[in-house]
Design goal:
Strand content: 15-25%
Number of domains: 3
Number of strands: 15
Structural class: alpha+beta
Order of helices and strands: EEEEHHEEEHEHEHHHHHEEEEEHEHH
Largest sheet: 9 strands, mixed
Helix content: 40-55%
Amino acid sequence: MEQEIIRRVLASEIKRINPKEGTVTVIMSDETIDRYNEIILASAWKKRMGSYKKHPILLSSHNYRGLMNQIGDAVSIKVKEGKLEAEFKYFHSQGNPEADWAWVLASKGVAAYSVGFICHAGRHVDPDAEYADDEDMKNWQKAGVRYVYDDVELLECSHVTVPANPSCLQNSFDQGSVVRELEAKAFPMLAELEEELKKLTPISRIRSVEMTDEQKEIENKKWDETENEIRHRVREPELFKEGSFRYITLKKDKPRVRAVIGKLKDEDVMKIQSLRFPKSDGWTMTEAKAWVKAHPDVIKTIEEKEIIMGIDDLEEMVASLKEKFTADFEAQMKLCLESMTITLRTAAEDMVTRMTEVIDAELEKRKEKEVEEVVGEEKQDEIILDTTKDTDGVLDVFKVITAEMEKAFLPKEG
């Protein structure tokens, strides 16, 4: 069989809806006969499921042409109890109106799903053939099945509006009961769905809302950047009572968000004056602006418990700085003492060396002088100098000075 992409609206059934997570669990297919008188065996999906799991997209109506047509993805997909079961997560509330509307339909239980797949192996069921030795083929023949899929490769899953699907329209002409069945299910919910649709912002309205140059200038003035942080001014400082400003932490986990709060002059409530985004946590101007846009409630009134939390944060910060200062101070002091010790030791040793040189020179001069004063050069050889005798006490003085210097400047080692 030629490997063309086959699209089928299967006998899908929404099994479970999780509004909090934005997911639906769907029975995509079972081994019942579909509207084309075909059967896809549950085992047929298992053989090549890896291709889809690498890129498990959920499209809108098999539309591949634009990025906005991907409205979700499959969190899981598996064959369970003879059925193909999938859990889809919708990308709603993220700026894609088509994903938003698809989620409304899915969450109301009014949704149909279709698959795009390639057939790798299958069997035609001949209505006139004899299948005496093949019980399955015999049963399928009796049920009017014309083709059985044994090996298929799933390419994508789509959320579709069945009446607008060409293949289903054709089937509807042949079997008017299909349309009547869908109408009976969908029309009672139409009014409710229309109300939900009104709440969504149309694309045309989103694109038309652009800031004027004056608004852009005002917005830019609310932001500034220092060496350590990015700051966003929520309210002018002049609106607050003097001396009422406090620091609090709005977001404790990194990247952190801090705020300066104060008491308004005309109201007895605490409100945010500015937001602070520490660069040490990795904040950039673009990311900070995106965070503010995603958290419009930052202008809310600050409750007393949050102020207490802010004071606790401040005390924690002071304690941390104090600890760091103490540790740094002790380290600097130790380093300074080590440096002074080395300097003094070097100076003392240098001084001792110089004094020794001076005293040696002085002793040498005295020896020469004593030799010259001896009467008769012939007696010079007989003169024996007693260099160990310190007649003027020079050596004694030197020893006392040296001992005192060692006490003062040379710390005991070890």
